Amino acid sequence: MKLSKFGENFSGPSGIVELMDDLGSALNENPEMLFMGGGNPGRIPDVEQVFKARLEQVLADPDQLHSLMGVYQSPQGDRGFREQIAGLLKQQFGWNLSARNIAVSNGSQSAFFVLYNMFAGDMPDGSHRSIHLPLAPEYIGYRDIGLTDNLFTATRPEIELLEDNLFKYHVDFSRLNIGQQTGALCVSRPTNPTGNVLTDSEIEHLDSIAVQQDIPFILDGAYGLPFPGIIFNDAKPHWSANTILVLSLSKLGLPGVRTGIIVASEEIIQAYTRVNTIVSLACGNLGPALATELVASGEILDLSREKIAPFYRQRAEQTLVWLRRALGDLPYRIHRPEGAIFLWLWFEGLPITSQELYERLKARGVLVVPGQNFFPGITDNWRHKQECIRVSYAQDAAVVEAGVKIIAEEVARAYAE
Q1: Burial class for 251, CB neighbours closer than 10 Å (0-12, 13-18, 19+)
Q2: Which of 137, 154, 225, 307 is 20 to 30 A away from residue 193, measured at CA?
Q3: What topology is assigned to 70-298 in CATH?
Q4: What does the alpha-carbon distance between residue 60 and residue 63 come to, in Å, rounded to a whole number?
């Protein structure tokens, strides 16, 4: 079989493909595996009940059912849904928005594929531009998304060591090098994989740098504000005329409906929509059908504040207790949990690579994600990349507790060797 360069690049090995293969295997083929790998959200009965009731309303109304199943929506997304999103953001935060500032995507992953390749890669003047990640580690799904090579550059973080075996990454503005080769800045908040929440001042500083360079500031809010709001410290939502805010319904508990939301200037939304027409033809209908009334009433924010964030905060705190007990005196640190649904474990001086640790854990029936896949744009041999793993605490408590015990055993074995 002869493949094009595109075919070779996108059908070859990659971290995100391995992650999703593991997810599918764990959830469908090997349910006995202790699944602490992918980003599948936890099950929150009160939230599931809200979605169930809304789906029953749609199914009971012939017109709504026809709109759900029998018509194409615009490539920009259902207009009523976009109007409600714009109205909510304008009312709650004073952002100057209309439906023309909103687009819908078939999941935020497809949105980033379009956005990154719109702003970086080979340029019409023959130059090459990149997406700069001001803080790495960053989301594994970014890494292999480019249609050209070298789509990402990144800045190493400043590492603050904290008490109780914790640490925190900060943007190292002294190393941040933004020039003509940069097509956009991008951060996730909270950061996937670490649960780091960039401070309001860091976010505002990055946006101001992007404005000065006349490039967009892309803010991945899949776990963040204003919904699903999986943030455990004080932070405020951010958007400006220069910001592209990407939201998702997945971590509300709806990963299967594949609905992303882009909030940006009208010019960017128009360009995105034209590309999306070619790539996707139209947007899916199920996400907007389930969420429009929740957005219109503001219930989506209430669910985020009162049900979703407390659920994950409790899980994070409990998993920290289990990890500290199991890891004992081993040389470990955990990134301070500030949001998202993961803990980021750093084993300084780990004698094996994070990939080897992943393989050993998988052989024992525990799935995590090896850390080296989370550093797109950092091409040197920084050993730190091989000393970290991402652990999800979204699954049932018994699964997480059992997985923590096995992780500690395998880490201890690696150091003993």
Answers
A1: buried
A2: 307
A3: Aspartate Aminotransferase; domain 2 (3.40.640)
A4: 9
State which H helix or E strand residue 302 sits in. helix 299-303
Handedness of CA 283, 140, 40, 225 (dihedral sign): negative
Task: Tell me if the pTM is above 0.90.
Answer: yes
Would you write out the chain's pLDDT as a tens digit for each of its 417 residues? 776 666 666 666 665 566 556 655 555 556 678 889 878 899 999 999 999 999 999 889 888 888 878 878 888 999 999 999 999 999 999 999 999 999 999 888 889 999 999 999 999 999 999 999 999 999 988 888 888 888 999 999 999 999 999 999 999 999 998 988 999 999 999 999 999 999 999 999 999 999 999 999 999 999 999 999 999 999 999 999 999 999 999 999 999 999 999 999 999 999 999 999 888 888 888 899 999 999 999 999 999 999 999 999 999 999 999 999 999 999 999 999 999 999 999 999 999 999 999 999 999 999 999 999 999 999 888 999 999 999 999 999 999 999 999 999 999 999 998
Residue intervals in the chain for CATH 3.40.640.10? 70-298
